[in-house]
Design brief:
Blueprint lengths: L1 E4 L9 H10 L4 E7 L11 H8 L5 E7 L7 H7 L3 E5 L6 H10 L3 E6 L17 E5 L14 H15 L4 E5 L4 H10 L3 E4 L1 H4 L3 H13 L1
Parallel strand pairs: 1-8, 2-3, 3-4, 4-5, 5-6, 6-7, 7-8
Helix pairs in contact: 2-3, 5-6, 6-8
Length: about 220
């Protein structure tokens, strides 16, 4: 299972230092939340920050667009250094086209669904995506409690993946800690985004603890 530290919970005053700690850790991905103050209430990072981080990190950049009109931002973040670009089903009326554009730019395309969004609405894009991100909290804020009902959604998505032979990874984001990550893995998740848990202590140690519990 892939661990993806979310820099939304990093110390913004010492962001480079925290990134260097992630570089030394067992994490494979770096999860970067992009928030525009409209699709979700908060504001976060822009393409310039991603470009700066790309110079100091070798991790896979998993860029999660929590924005209105994601089509306006895809190329900017692709150019800035994103490897995976995630867009919300809820943010685009033409989500198939949006995901196709990501792939045309040579990036991995991810569809993201909020807790209240059923899996059925994304069935038609599952053959073309590289990842599906199931939000296990409501998007926009760090430190929220894991929504247990999302485990059923993860399991259903995993069943569909196996039934039709799809190759996408299943990612979870929100409320991830030593207990919830085990539940998510058991339900079929392949990638776990962790923010508050990792950055509340020693970064390398917290990543190792997550890796250890999913290997038991």
């Amino acid at each position: 299972m892939i661990i993806a530290p979310s820099i939304l919970s990093a110390n913004i005053n010492n962001l480079e230092e925290d990134i260097q700690k992630i570089e030394k850790s067992e994490a494979q991905y770096l999860h970067i939340d992009i928030m525009d103050g409209h699709f979700v209430p908060n504001l976060s990072f822009g393409p310039n920050i991603v470009q700066s981080l790309r110079k100091i990190s070798t991790k896979v950049f998993d860029v999660h667009l929590m924005v209105e009109n994601p089509d306006e931002w895809i190329e900017k973040f692709a150019t800035a250094g994103a490897d995976v670009i995630g867009v919300h089903y809820e943010s685009s009326p033409h989500i198939y086209r949006t995901l196709t554009e990501i792939k045309k730019l040579g990036k991995q395309a991810e569809i993201v669904i909020n807790p209240a969004t059923p899996i059925g609405v994304i069935e038609e894009v599952l053959p073309i995506v590289d990842q599906v991100l199931v939000m296990t909290v409501n998007p926009g804020f760090g430190g929220q409690a894991f929504i247990e009902n999302m485990l059923d959604k993860i399991a259903k998505l995993d069943d569909m993946k196996k039934k039709f032979g799809y190759q996408f990874k299943i990612e979870v984001d929100g409320g991830i800690n030593e207990k919830t990550i085990q539940k998510c893995k058991k339900s079929g998740a392949n990638i776990a985004v962790a923010g508050s848990y990792i950055f509340a202590g020693d970064i390398e140690d917290r990543v190792k603890k997550l890796n250890d519990v999913i290997e038991d």
